Structure formats: structure tokens, C-alpha cells
């Protein structure tokens, strides 16, 4: 039971994945985030909780959007945040990732936010840093994106109040999605009784059954009676590959339209991690419609990231 | 009379263009900027006016120089500013500009500084954001660059005290210049009785007469007796096009030399929005000469941007 | 005796090179840095010494690592720091470096941190800025990298207490190394009695004798009895050139191995400015070994840069 995310006192040391995190820890993050929702709505949206802390946005894979959410969260906690886009720098000079991390650690870093195209990068870093440094995985390869999953859980709880009576469907490219993987683990841990995945066979991982989900290849069937629809982004490169016939074809079978959404519960909510491909995995009428909570997800994402940073810094 | 820049109380909600802005609003910005000139000369160049505000430098077209002026202005007001260079990010992932803006708005943005290569981009964003968010146009296509025009007006007033007895000449590529357009509207509104444009025929917009300016194709004639010479930057790409014979030719007819400047009033001031092409639109003896106020423009530009941000945040 | 680094009162106005700096000034920087080592180890790693100061990281040559050290140092002093990567911006619009600097100066800059691929760039800037502006050279061509040399001196003093009884060897590509040049001047000024350089003939500057160093082409001989080994980074492009046979060959003769290190004093320390080419100029067993102080160098580098900034701002 050696969980690399927990310290000796069984408290959260790093946030690397939602897999294996006990429900009380997930709930503590959600509860702490509730208190930060208020902060972001105040006139002066700042608290001095992390003043003087040095946080590094360590992005080995570019993502302005995700980088910005962490930068805003850190600044609202009064931390000093430094952005490093590593692809174009030391890595090209041949320095290894761990040398880079060791160097930044030697500058008395307090926290690393890591995004990397390779699965396991954040774990590798977490294993090597000194015990006073915390690592947050901001997306690693196909593996995990825990803050995204946590903000999704926060949003679900805000709209549905409880996890124990929900049917949740995740729709799209499950195979390549770190978001889906992190959502499935979080939903299961938090006690959602029925998690469905809806996907073409070519975009489904072979071991998906082991995750305790119900598989649907027909979207209409899969959406019937669900409370929450979690759409996934379809990467453009998939559409060019042999796995998919065409964007039009994909939209026809797996794009979320008002017609298909009508099969879910009448008060079902629609979520998407962004950025959206309108007209490919979701139509605009749904994305901008009454049941969409896509923008609240973004709002809550700041509060959830502030909560994660604060909890880690306090452990 | 639906001015998209004003809110219901006829106060400035967005700064998108100098066109259509009433003189009292322009003067309020200039007067407020006066108070900030002092701040930037103090030992601690910071005031807490915008503490906790989230300002986004949203640059869809790269410009280190303009981005820096807004970044410095925001930091001197104690705001939290986040730089986003969008060309290389979400846009390439196929997200629309408005989805990007909606996302940042959902993070409780207070202000967007927008630069875009397409005319109208800042207006489009201003029309879509929530009422508590303010938009500043930092240059859109050939359309407008209002903070540049305002800092020019501030500089003119500092050196010439009053607008009502001035002859002002704008020289260069009027056709492609958002700066020229914004200057003409501001000068006219502030009561400058004679605004001249000096330009080759190929670099003059066809409807320029409607703007209430006097057109000169001969620079010597156009400069006679003017109080202010506003030089424009010649984009390198123009020199390669059919619109201009060569850089040497251009300099001969439209480059500002000491000889030509001698035709203006003896105390005429010379301005340029930068960056300058020395030896193309202006010779170094003039750029660095006694009559040049090009560097004071930059200094006042910070104060003017601080004024615009403060006024918007207060409305 | 017109030293461009000193003001009229013989105090440090700019830090451009360690060459020609009197020992008391070097020692004052090291002593001031001692006080900042404590700050970076505190829970709130911030002091308000440079609050409201505007510092510009002016990088004409990209370097995430060096930029980060100055950014962290400035933030720990509560300064406002703006990063400018100039290669991709105004320079491509044809603006000269001095126009860029004049512009930023006009924004009431207090300090420029300059990195440039051409030797002399920081000196040129220092000669042109207004007297209230300070320039720090963060590496110019093959010429100088004074903050690196100063943090090396700080590290040596921390581990060896005194400079007056040391044998120090600098190993590698002396010819192209601004770090080596700055180290040699600093070591000599601080009274190190024996400075050795160890290098293949093709990577040694012809005038190296004038610097008061002892030259070795055989690494085993050169390392005998030394107290400090300063390794240099081998630029990848050198390995492709006619100056070197191959990386393997280089490692065989000039790579620091445990075997070779055993020839130095038993308590000799090993240093490297980073980023390291493991297996080319240094083997991992040494880089990560007991005698390596490579990570402490990085830690002390922040304190030294804080010291330089504070001293300059006070002069």
C-alpha cells in the first residue's frame, strides 16, 4: 500500500492521479474548494495563503489554457509563479528532465505543476524531489489529469448534490484520454453507482472493463437516463488516422446533439474539459444550451486548483 | 447613438477606438494620466488601485513592445496580469476566439487587453463579455489603436498646452495605419482645427476626405507651419509590394529629415509610435534631435494606460 | 582608470564582467549574498527591498534556466520583473537594440538583465542608459558571465573558507567559454595563488598565458593536488566541428571521472555551471557524487543574484 501521493502521515504529498486516492482526500479537496469559490467572487480576489512560495509551471508540452488556470490560481493565493516552457530550452541543450527539476529544486522551489506528453513523467519527478516539494500532475500522456477530474467532480456535486444516485456517461475517445481515466477513478471512488463509457470500438482501451464501467458503442442507448454527460475532446490527429472514417461520420454517431441529449434525464448536465471542437464532438446548440455547465467547470477549476495547492502546501 | 464603448450611465465600459468618444471622456483619461506621471517617477512606482484584479494580455498577434507597456502599467497598479500569446496555442487546437474569451471570463477576468490582426476583433469580444468585464483594444488590423492615440494626445497637450490652435501633420502610410485612424479621430474630437495627412497616393485610403483632414502628397508643402509632426511606421512588407518603388525612393519623398522639418514651425515637435525604421521614414538626426519627443511618448504611454485601466475598473 | 562598471563614487553601477573589479567589491557581493541565503530558507522567502522597482529580463539569446534564476531572485526581492525574449519580436521588425533599450528606459526601468550572443552587448547598453539605470550582464558571447563566476566564488568560499591557499582547475572548452573568463578574473582578484586551465590545444585561447594561469593539456597532471575542479559545459556544436574528434574521444581525455578526480585532493569539490552533458564532460557518478557541489551552486546563485541586484539598486 505504498501510495506515492501520500506522505508518512497518510496526507496528500503530491497530486498525480485520482487512482488510488481515498474518498476522504478527494472530498477534502472538494470541500476546501468550496471556500475558494467565494474568494474568486470577491472584489479583491486574493488571499495571502501562499505568500513567498515559489511555484513552477513546468510545461514540457505546451498548453496556454491549462498553464493559465494554474497561474491564476497561484496568483490568487499570492504565490510567486514562474512559467517554464521546457520544450524550447534546456531539453534542447540535452539536459535531462531530472537535472532540470533538480536545478529548480535547488532554487528552493515549493511546488511543481507538471505537464508532459509522456505518461508517468509527473510520477518520476515526484519520486525524485526533496520531501518539502510538492508535485501536481497537470496532464501526462494518456495517463492522468487529476485536477481536471476533480473540477469535474466539484461541478457534478454542485449541480447534483450527491454522487450516490447518479448515472454518468463519458463519451468519446476513451483510448487516448487522460481526462477519462482520471474521471473514471474519481467517480468510482466517490461512489457513483453507474459509470458508462460511450465510444467507437477503435477508441476504447482493451482493459476498460476492469475499471468497473459499462461500455456502450451506441450513443443513443448509452445516454438513456443519465444524469451527467461528460464529453471528451477529439484530438485532430485522430481524425486523420485509420481509427476514424471522418469528422462528419464521427459527429453523426458520437457528436452530442440536442436530439441525442433528449434521451438523457431532462435535468442532465453536459460537461466538456475544453477546448471544444464544435460540430465534431458537440454541437453549438448543446455547448451553449441550458444544460451545459461547461463554463462553470472553468470557474470551479480555479477554486479546485487553489484548494489543491493550499492543501499540499499545508501537508 | 448606441456606442459600444459606453455603459448605460454613459461611462466608459470598453476602450475600443477613439472614434465616437466624446471629448470629456478623452480629457478625463488625459487628466487622470497626469496624476500617474508622478507615480512612475516615485521611488516605489506602485499604487494598490487594482490589487486583486485579473488582467489578461490577450495577444493574437505578437508584439513584445506593446505587451510590455500594458504589463508594466498593470503591475504598477498592483493588478495580477497574465500574458497569453494565442497564436501558438488554443487557436491552433481549433478553439474559436470567443470560446477562448469565454473561458478566461469564467476564470473571473476583470479586463482583456486585446491585440489582433483582424479589424473588429476587440469589438467582437466586447460585445460578448459579461458586463463586469472591460476590454481595451491594443490594436486591431487596420482599424484602431486607441491607447497609442491617447498617449499621443497626452504628449501633444504636455508640449503644446492646448489643442485649439494647432496644425498637426500625420505622415506616411495612412492606408494601413490603425494609429493614424485613431489619431485623426482624437485630434478632431479634441478640437484641433487643422489636421493634415501627408502620404503617397498609393498609401492613402479613398475615403480619407470624410475624416475632415487636408491631404498633401508633397511633404514639403504639408509640413509648412505645422506645430506637430506625427510620423508613422512604414511596414517592411509595403516596401516589397507594388505600392512603393523602394525604401530609398520613399525616404527621399516622405522620410523626415532635418531639412524638411525646418519647414515646420521652429518649435514643432516630432512624434513616432515606434518601432522606428531609421533611414526609411525618419533620419536619426531627427529621431534623436532636439524636437523629437519620441521617448517622452513612451513614458507618458505608461501613465495613459494606467489611467485607462483605472477608469475602466471604476466604471 | 575609467571603469565602466563603477560610478563617480567608485561604487558598482553595472555588473558587466569580473575583470577589473576590485576585490572589496567582489567581497561585498559575497558578504551580502550570505545574508540572503537565510532568506531563501525561510518559510516566506520574500523581502521588500526592491518593491516597485521595474526589472527587465532582456534576453536576446534564449535561456530558460538563467532567466529563471534572475526572475526568482527579483521576485524574492519583491521587484516587478518583465521577461522579454527579443529575438522573436522588435528586432525582427528592424528596431535596433539601443532603440529597444531606450524604449524600456523611457518606461522608467530600474534594471536590465541582458543576455546576448554577441560579446560586448551589455557594455554597449550600459554606456547608453541613463545614470539611474543599472545593467547586469547575464552572458554576452564568449566574453563574460559575471554572476555565474560570483556564485562560483561564493560556493568556493562556503566550502573552502578562504581563497589564499587554493589550487583551482578549470577544465574544458576555455576558448568559447564566457564562464571560464569570468572565473579566471574573479579567482585571480580574490587571491587564489594557483589557477590552472586544462584543455585540448584546439579549445584554448592563444592569449591565455596573459591571464596568469597555468596551462595543462593532460588532465591527469592538471588535476593533481587541486582543491577545486571547475568543469565547463561542452557546447554540442563544438563536437561537430573540426576542433574535436568525437564526444567519446573528448570524454576519454577531458571527461571528469571518479578515477581522474582521485588525483585531486581527497576533499576537492567539483563544480559545473550547468546544464551538464552527462557522459561527455562529466560522468554521472561524479556529478551526483559526494564531492559534487553542483546543486549548492544553484542555490547560492539565487542569493548572489539577489545581492547584486540589491547592491546595484542602492548605489
What do these coordinates show?
Three copies of one chain form a homotrimer. Chain A has 315 residues and is α/β, with parallel strands linked by helices. Chain A has two domains: 23-145 and 298-314, Rossmann fold (3-Layer(aba) Sandwich), CATH 3.40.50; 146-293, Rossmann fold. Helix content of chain A is 39%, strand content 14%. Chain A contains twelve helices and nine strands. Chain A has helices spanning 23-40, 64-76, 97-106, 121-128, 146-160, 178-189, 219-223, 236-240, 247-254, 258-261, 284-287, 294-314, and strands at 54-59, 80-85, 111-116, 134-140, 167-171, 194-198, 214-216, 228-231, 269-271. In chain A, the strands form two sheets. The first copy, chain A, has a five-stranded parallel beta sheet with strand order 7-6-5-8-9. In chain A, helix 4 links the parallel strand 3 and strand 4. The longest helix of chain A is centred in the C-terminal third of the chain and has 21 residues, at 294-314. Chain A is globular. The two termini of chain A are 19 Å apart. Chain A binds chain B through residues 40-46, 62-65, 68-69, 71-72, 75-76, 236, 274-278, 295-299, 301-302, and chain B through 51-54, 80, 82, 84-86, 88-90, 93-96, 99-100, 102-108.
Poorly predicted runs of chain A are: none
Structural class of chain A: alpha/beta
Task: Tell me what portion of residues of chain A adopts beta-strand conformation.
Answer: 5-15%
What is the subunit arrangement here?
Answer: homotrimer
Distance from N terminus to C terminus of chain A (CA atoms, Å) equals 19 Å
| Helix and strand run of chain A | HEHEHEHEHEHEEHEHHHEHH
Major sheet description of chain A: 5 strands, parallel
- Binned, the helix content of chain A reads 25-40%
Number of separate strands of chain A: 9
Shape of chain A: globular
Give the number of helices of chain A: 12
Strand order in the largest sheet of chain A: 7-6-5-8-9
| Mean pLDDT score of chain A | 93
Amino acid at each position: 500500500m505504498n501510495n506515492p501521493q501520500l506522505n508518512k502521515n497518510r496526507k496528500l504529498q503530491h497530486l498525480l492521479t485520482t487512482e488510488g486516492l481515498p474518498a476522504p482526500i478527494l472530498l477534502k479537496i472538494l470541500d476546501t474548494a468550496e471556500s475558494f469559490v467565494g474568494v474568486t467572487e470577491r472584489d479583491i480576489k486574493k488571499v495571502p495563503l501562499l505568500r513567498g512560495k515559489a511555484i513552477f509551471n513546468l510545461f514540457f508540452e505546451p498548453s496556454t489554457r491549462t498553464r493559465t488556470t494554474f497561474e491564476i490560481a497561484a496568483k490568487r493565493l499570492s504565490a510567486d509563479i514562474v512559467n517554464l516552457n521546457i520544450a524550447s530550452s534546456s531539453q534542447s541543450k540535452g539536459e535531462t528532465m531530472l537535472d532540470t527539476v533538480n536545478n529548480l529544486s535547488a532554487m528552493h522551489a515549493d511546488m511543481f505543476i507538471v505537464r508532459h506528453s509522456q505518461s508517468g513523467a509527473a510520477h518520476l519527478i515526484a519520486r525524485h524531489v526533496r520531501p518539502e516539494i510538492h508535485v501536481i500532475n497537470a496532464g501526462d500522456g494518456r495517463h492522468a489529469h487529476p485536477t481536471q477530474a476533480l473540477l469535474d467532480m466539484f461541478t457534478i456535486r454542485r449541480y447534483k448534490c450527491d454522487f450516490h444516485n447518479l448515472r454518468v456517461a463519458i463519451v468519446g475517445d476513451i483510448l487516448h484520454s487522460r481526462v477519462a481515466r482520471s474521471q473514471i477513478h474519481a467517480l468510482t471512488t466517490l461512489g457513483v453507482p453507474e459509470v458508462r463509457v460511450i465510444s467507437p470500438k477503435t477508441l476504447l482501451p482493451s482493459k476498460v472493463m476492469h475499471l468497473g464501467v459499462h461500455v456502450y458503442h451506441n450513443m443513443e442507448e448509452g445516454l438513456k437516463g443519465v444524469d451527467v454527460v461528460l464529453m471528451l475532446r477529439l484530438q485532430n490527429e485522430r481524425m486523420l488516422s485509420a481509427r476514424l472514417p471522418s469528422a462528419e461520420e464521427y459527429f453523426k454517431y458520437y457528436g452530442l446533439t440536442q436530439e441525442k441529449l433528449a434521451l438523457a434525464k431532462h435535468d442532465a448536465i453536459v460537461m466538456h474539459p475544453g477546448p471544444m471542437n464544435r460540430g465534431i464532438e458537440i454541437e453549438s446548440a448543446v455547448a451553449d444550451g441550458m444544460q451545459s455547465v461547461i463554463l462553470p467547470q472553468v470557474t470551479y477549476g480555479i477554486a479546485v486548483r487553489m484548494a489543491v495547492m493550499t492543501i499540499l502546501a499545508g501537508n
